[in-house]
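writing this on my phone so excuse typos. first protein, seq and then structure
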Amino acid sequence: MILVGIFNALNFLYHILMARTLPLEDFGLLKRIFAFLYIGAIFMESIQTVIVRYVSKNVHEDGKLKTIFIKSNKKMAKVSIAVGGLFLAASLLISPLFDIPYMLLIATSFFIAGSMFAPIARGILQGQQRFLALGSSMLVEAALKIGISFLLVYWGSVGGVVISLVLSMGLSLIYLRKVLSSNSEDVELTGIRSYSRPVFLVTLVLILFINVDILLAGNLLGKLDAGVYAIASTIALIIFIGIQPVNKVLFPITAIESYKNIPSMPNFIRAMTIVLSICAVALTVILFFTEEIVYIISGELILEAVVPARLLSLGTAFLSLSSTILYYKLSIGRTKGYGWVLAFLLMEIILLAIFSSNIVDYSYAFLVANILFFIGSVVLLKK
């Protein structure tokens, strides 16, 4: 869990370096580019989540794990070509709509296509609870991304992500050499497609919830205010990044408990206690030292970012709680009613569009949307 936390911290360090290097308008553009890169993260997280649940059922059977690895890669080869091609075509509309150079979107399409494969190996490592191996492969990715991206800025931001992902995948395969050298065995994957749908949709909504405001800000707030908002959003991102290691550890543990009919609620309560503690500490620091944090991140005191940073941080804390609740429910197979999560994403977009007259109202809209989503996450996804 510590290594995964360091990985997330290095990713956040990258955003700080870019915020201090680029003018506000350019930093806003970079954040919009990364919002589209996170489309690849949607596939990565959802695929990894599915793999973890099925690996948890066969955690000590290397032959079956090898079969899962082979079958998953064959399936993803077709999907990656289709999704990458679709994004490439859609980029013809995305480029003028969000004011992003088309060539950068072409590079992004390669990342999205390649992102289908990395989570297969990582999912096996996570399902085996080999967190040291998982974390070290992710650290390699983060370190390379920072180095390449900082040197080349825009092109490095995309190229660094692609190159670091490929090398990280290679390291993951080394860690899986025992599994890959074993003889394949038949494995029962009944229900994997039906389970994949709610996992993908929930992951889609969670990642878009933290990114759609950035995407829309350029058009709704204007380039300068969008840059200020990007600074505030980067501060709030600290919280969401900070709780992710908890989710990574919780999922395989409760998935195994679910398969063995062991009560999983105690581990969920422990995880929620940790997440609440992280949120409380982060919110306290941000509330009392907002101006100092803005200065550290941007290299200058941007007063317009202070109030939005506090509002977005509170909203992100609610989103963090929602993510832990939803991933826990997915880990134990509670997927009924998953389609309703889309309604909350649509509601967020509507609220952002209505309350976009200024950056503070826009931030309030984000906060309200996340409070409502948190309430929904408690109610939705039943047996």
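second protein below, same order as before
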Amino acid sequence: MSAGPGSGAGFGSGAGFGAVAGTWELTIRTPIGRQDVVLVIGHHEGALTGQARGASETVPLSNLAVEGQRLSWDQAITRPMRLNLHFDVTVTGDDLTGTSRAGRLPASRVTGRRVRPFGDGVTQPA
């Protein structure tokens, strides 16, 4: 099931919103070094929403999709260089592992841990 900011796509009934919602601390091992990112995933009006905060910028997530334990999204960054990134991770409880890819560049390893689940009444990233 897919949903993205402004997409109007719903997060289907029976899908595990709680399986991906919350604040995550990610580590991305890139060719230019380790990048630490805080990922915030929520929902608004039935659609998944999210943002990623790095050392120098905060960017929205797009094309958020959940299928079973698999979570994927896209994000465009400008620092440390301008890149369009695609993430594909597997969520197991409060841990995630997977890859990030920028076009034809080699995939970078992504690991993360949920540090704060969303509670009742929280519907979008802070």
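Confidence is low (pLDDT under 50) at residues 1-15. thats all i got for now
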